[in-house]
Structure to design on (332 residues):
């Protein structure tokens, strides 16, 4: 097949490209050419900007397109208008954040978030705030709706949970393998049996390419493997042969010490428990498989060790703050 991938090559796009090439497909990448320009030297690259410069796509045809970077409905609509007669199948990488209520378990039929027309105009105006704000999920839901309007019955909507693995620069999972490998007392949010769900980017990419080959359409939650926080930490400790000692602290302590959830202390969510309790049964029935947690952990840890030590991490407790928190905990 001839596949077009919209987006960068840093994470999801990178592994989608690798999976497609491994299965013998021809890939064209469309992005701004700002990063990883030496990657995939034998893959065609089209330079442009889906916001205001789609000309490189004009007059071309592909069997399918995979959209990894659609965040605003008006921009997704522009791309879809340009491509609706140029592709047979459209994959949109959405998010479980589309769901209106993530305090509870959700499935593909759960209600999605909405946004007022006035607020939509504000956030889609040039320069109006980051798309990873509070409206992120509602914007993704609107993107899905735009695509169904323009390409009815031809769209595969993938709603991932937390995507993890090597080259995950969000550091929301990466923090734990690396921190545990350093050993010593490790501050951990309470709940050794607290459920976690993550999807390895390579499992997501492999299934996505196979789904495109089979012209699969519809909505699929892709939150991946389910395990406990305790299992994750013990796996991190095992693969790195660490001497880590896990210090489990309660939510009241974290709140009173103003520890930020999700980013400052990754995988800790105070209320959105549904983020880690997504009904995945539909995609597993459709042939999705997951690799062992240990493989994801060790590959993520090995990759992180290749990064410059001075490179700022986007998530995780700073060493100094963790030490202060541990001192406060032990002195209670």
């Amino acid at each position: 097949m001839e596949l077009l991938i919209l987006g960068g090559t840093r994470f999801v796009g990178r592994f989608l490209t690798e999976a497609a090439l491994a299965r013998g497909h021809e890939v064209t990448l469309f992005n701004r050419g700002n990063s990883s320009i030496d990657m995939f030297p034998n893959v065609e690259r089209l330079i442009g900007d889906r916001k205001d410069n789609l000309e490189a796509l004009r007059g071309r045809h592909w069997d399918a397109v995979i959209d990894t970077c659609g965040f605003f409905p008006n921009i997704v609509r522009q791309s879809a208008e340009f491509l609706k007669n140029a592709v047979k199948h459209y994959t949109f990488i959405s998010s479980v954040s589309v769901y209106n209520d993530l305090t509870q378990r959700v499935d593909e039929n759960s209600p999605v978030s909405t946004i007022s027309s006035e607020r939509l105009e504000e956030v889609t105006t040039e320069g109006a705030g980051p798309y990873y704000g509070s409206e992120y999920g509602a914007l993704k839901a609107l993107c899905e709706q735009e695509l169904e309007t323009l390409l009815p019955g031809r769209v595969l909507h993938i709603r991932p949970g937390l995507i993890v693995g090597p080259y995950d620069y969000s550091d929301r999972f990466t923090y734990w393998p690396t921190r545990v490998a350093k050993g010593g007392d490790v501050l951990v949010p309470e709940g050794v049996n607290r459920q976690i769900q993550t999807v390895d980017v390579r499992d997501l990419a492999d299934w996505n390419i196979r789904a495109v080959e089979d012209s699969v359409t519809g909505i699929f939650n892709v939150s991946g493997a389910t395990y406990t926080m305790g299992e994750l930490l013990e796996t991190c400790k095992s693969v790195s042969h660490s001497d880590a000692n896990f210090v489990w602290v309660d939510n009241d302590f974290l709140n009173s010490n103003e520890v930020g959830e999700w980013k400052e202390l990754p995988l800790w969510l105070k209320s959105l428990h549904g983020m880690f309790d997504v009904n995945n049964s539909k995609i597993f029935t459709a042939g999705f498989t997951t690799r062992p947690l240990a493989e994801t952990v060790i590959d993520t840890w090995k990759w992180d060790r290749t990064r410059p030590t001075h490179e700022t991490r986007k998530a995780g407790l700073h060493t100094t703050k963790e030490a202060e928190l541990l001192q406060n905990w032990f002195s209670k």
In short: The two ends are 62 Å apart (CA to CA).
